[in-house]
Automatic annotation (TrEMBL):
This is PhzF family phenazine biosynthesis protein. It comes from the Bacteria. Pfam families: PhzC-PhzF. InterPro entries: Phenazine_PhzF-like.
Amino acid sequence: MTEQASDVLVDLVRVFCGPDGRHGNTLGVVRDGAAVRGEAARLRLAAELGYSETVFVDDDERGVIDIWTPSVRLPFAGHPCVGAAWLLDLPELVVAAGVVAARQDGEFTWIAARAEWAPGRTLRQYASPAEVEALDVPPAGEWIYAWAWEDEAAGRVRARAFPGRGDGIVEDEATGAAALCLTASLGRALNITQGVGSQILTAPGPSGLIEVGGRVALA
C-alpha cells in the first residue's frame, strides 16, 4: 500500500505481524529519499505521517536509510530496519549507527544489530502478563519497555512499549530495538508478544550481535 503526503509517495508495511498475519507496527518508507532533503523537511514529513518511524531511502542499492520518528532522528531502530530489509530485499542496510546485516528465512525477515545502538530504554519487569496488560500509559519522559514472562522455560515474553517522547506516539505496537535490549540483558533467545498481538523473535549471535526477526506484510 502507498500513501501520498506532501506530494511524496510513501510505501506502508506492517512489521512484526502476529502468526495470523494481523497486527504489526506500521512503517512508512520513502523510497525516493532525494525527494525529501534536509533534516527539517524529513522531520516535518515524519510528523505529518504520524507513524512511530518513517524511513527515507538514500541509496537503494547500498541500502542506506535514514530513520525518523515524529520528533527525532534515530541512529538505529529495529522495526524500520526489518521492514526496509523486507521491502528493498537487500542483504544489509547502512544506518547512522553502522551496518545492519539482513536475511530472509521463510516467512521471517531477520536483522543483526548491537544493543548499544539502542540506548536509553528502561526495561521494567512485572510479575505476570496480566500486570503488563493492565498498565496505563505512563507520563512522558522515560522510554519504558514493560515485560513479564509468559513461559520462562520456553523464552516466551509478554511486553508493551511506551516511548515517552511526547510526540503523540504513547505506545509502540512492536519495537525491535527494545526487544534487542531485553535479549542482551537476559542473554537468551526470546519469543515476544507485544502490543495487541505482534510477534518479535530474537536470538543472541556471535561478537555481541543479536538477531531480531519477524513477519512483514504490506499495510
